[in-house]
Structures are given as structure tokens and as C-alpha cells.
Task: inverse folding
């Protein structure tokens, strides 16, 4: 009985703090949040061409559309995301996992 009352009070306190955020405050931070993103991360130089499997390995083929070397990581559920770099204006395949790995869900541009 005490646990349910305590958890109810915690939930009520959490909802109370969330309701204190006004839409105007969220709109004001929208512009500041966009400015806080680094210029390198905003420009998505690396894009996925295709995902494929050459058993037992999983590969992703990517293309760099920028004039400088770009770094990226492959998003894999429940695993540490492997990181790679690709040269300027290149298209290349990268092995990101083996037969027991789950398939990649996307890529993230990261700083080199």
C-alpha cells in the first residue's frame, strides 16, 4: 500500500514539473537549439546507397558528397555503433557486423 502511494506521489510530482514548461519557452529554445548544432553535423555529407549481406557479414554502401573526409557511425540496436571514415567524393562499402549482429537501422554523421 505504501509503495503505491509513494509511486503515485512521484508520478504527480513529475507531471507537475512537466506542466510548468510553457509553449513559449519551447518556441524560444527552438532557435537556440538549432544554433547549438555544430556546422559539421548539420551538413549530412554521407548518405546510404544500399544495405546488403554477403553471408556471413553485413555491409553498408555509402557515398560522401562533400569535398572533405567525413566520419560516420552505423546505428545497430543493442551494440556499440561502429565508426568509419570515407574520403572526399567517394562511394565505398563498409563491413559493420557479422552473422549474429542485428541489421543496421541508419547512419549518424560524427566529427572526425
Result:
Amino acid at each position: 500500500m505504501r509503495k503505491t502511494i509513494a509511486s503515485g506521489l512521484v508520478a504527480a510530482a513529475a507531471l507537475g514539473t512537466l506542466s510548468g514548461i510553457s509553449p513559449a519557452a519551447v518556441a524560444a529554445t527552438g532557435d537556440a537549439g538549432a544554433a547549438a548544432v555544430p556546422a559539421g553535423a548539420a551538413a549530412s555529407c554521407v548518405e546510404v546507397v544500399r544495405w546488403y549481406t554477403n553471408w556471413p557479414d553485413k555491409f553498408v554502401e555509402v557515398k560522401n558528397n562533400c569535398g572533405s573526409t567525413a566520419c560516420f557511425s552505423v546505428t545497430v540496436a543493442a551494440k556499440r555503433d561502429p565508426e568509419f571514415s570515407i574520403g572526399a567524393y567517394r562511394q565505398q562499402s563498409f563491413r559493420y557486423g557479422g552473422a549474429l549482429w542485428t541489421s543496421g537501422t541508419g547512419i549518424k554523421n560524427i566529427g572526425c
